[in-house]
Amino acid sequence: MRAALVLIAVLSASEARAEDWANAFEIGASSDADTVVITVRPTRDGHYVNADYPTKLTLASTGTTLSKTTLRRDDARFVDAGLPGKAKRATFSVGAKGDGTITVTYKLTVCTSKACSPPLKGTFTHRHRGPRAPRPPPAVRAPVVEVQVGLRAERCGHRRWPGAPRVAP
Fold first, then answer.
1. Given CA atoms 17, 19, 22, 25 in this order, what sign does their dihedral have?
2. pLDDT at 129
3. For 67, which DSSP code?
4. What backbone torsions phi and psi does residue 21 show, to the nearest 5 degrees?
């Protein structure tokens, strides 16, 4: 009985740690006309992106042509955290042309100053929109001119002639 309780406590603690690691970072993408930038950053103080781990991002796209479909640690730009092998943020850039959806599958680790997470894996999608044609200038609209034909006749009680615009008194 006692061994079962210890086992349950160990399993609960490891599940809580795994959940903590999964919530310890954010990964997302942004894009402009011809580039997609994927950023990994910790969400908590004291957490870092592991710059020594062989991080891997695999990109699959529909409707968008990518310059690379696999990004690795060597493709990342790390923002130094002042600790060996740890970074405040990792940024990956890839060229992209056309409109479409990009699916990113990642494998990375996050660390504290004392320990690192097991490999964290996941997938997310990003909608990329290629360059847009410049908008045409707004159409020049003719100024609105009020026609006053027949105004005097209406106010005087005379009948309007056929085709004359009706003017409110």
1. negative
2. 85
3. S
4. -65, -40
